[in-house]
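Q: How would the structure tokens look for this protein?
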Amino acid sequence: MKTPSHTVAGIDVGGTKKGFHAVALREECIVATLATSLPGQVVAWCRELRVSAVGIDAPCRWSHTGRARLCERELAGFRMSCFSTPSQLVGEVHPFYQWMVNGAELFRRLVPQYRLYDGRTPLLEPLCFETFPQAIACCLAGKMLSAKHKRIERRRLLEEAIQTTDALTSIDEIDAALCALAAQYVLAGSFNVFGDAAEGFILVPHRLNFLQEFSAANPMGSSSFTA
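A: Here is the predicted structure in token form.
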């Protein structure tokens, strides 16, 4: 992939205690990292770095039905399962979903400056989008990966794409860097799209025709593709 010469960012979203971990990439280099519990600080950091695209590991929209969103069901069709997003009513009161509440607040603060991907092309920068590290890793590897060894395998994939990963000291930062790498693919126009505008899209890198080959071998798998 020929990466655009833009600064991009990836955000790993946690609950109240863990907060947000962010990594910014420019071409093949990590240019900044951030750990904070304040979503407003993440937005200010992105603007200060003149980030062109932000990939976020958290739901960009709540479920309308209380069941898994279309993007989550489509990912599951490719054996890349993630937590199902509940309705806003459930998510805002159940402690387990606090990280999704934090993600929703981050999207709310970002969207005035970073347009949320809505399925339309060409892309309008700066933009933000939802992504998912496990799906990113599988697409980059060109095969299904087990999450049991995610720290080792995800760092290895990053080492193939950037000059050094020494600045990444936790799985949260590794996942944030993967989200930033996905942002490079999105700006290059090489990405897979899951979901719809109503409940949100998940974007992951397009590489090696991996998902198309899986879909051909497993007709139940489905998604949209753009290149």
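The chain is about 35% helix and 20% strand.

The chain has a mean pLDDT of 91.

Upvote if useful.
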